[in-house]
Amino acid sequence: MTKAIYDMRHAAICGALLAARKSKELSLIQVSNILKQKGKTFLTAETIGLIEKGQRKIDIVEFVDLANAINIPWLRLLPEQIRESM
Fold first, then answer.
1. Per-residue confidence (pLDDT) for residue 82, from 0 to 100
2. Whole-prediction pTM value?
3. 4-13 as b/e, with b when 16 or more CB fall inside 10 Å?
4. Average pLDDT by consecutive 10-residue portion of the chain (86 residues)?
């Protein structure tokens, strides 16, 4: 069985987070600060960068919190193949 961190679905989700953050012109530090201000999952800028590069696993709570911090509905960040299987 393939480890999740090397799964193509994981890579697609991480890439979607990166693209969404860049489309909103937010830095890693800004996203980290937004999470901290909202009292949500605290992730450092470094940790967010590792997630976006696919070098760190992300749980569903972190995923939803990051999507909210970026101001993108979390469902839009899921790859189509995952949305279709829901």
1. 78
2. 0.85
3. eeeeeebebb
4. 69 94 98 94 94 94 96 91 75
For domain 4-79, give the CATH superfamily.
Answer: lambda repressor-like DNA-binding domains (1.10.260.40)
CA distance 82 to 58: 16
Structure tokens at 68: 């909210």
Q: Check residue 1 and give its pLDDT.
A: 43
Q: Which long-range contacts (CB under 8 A, 24 or more apart) does 57-66 make?
A: 57/4, 57/5, 57/10, 58/10, 58/13, 58/14, 63/13, 63/17, 65/35, 65/38, 65/40, 65/41, 66/17, 66/31, 66/35, 66/41
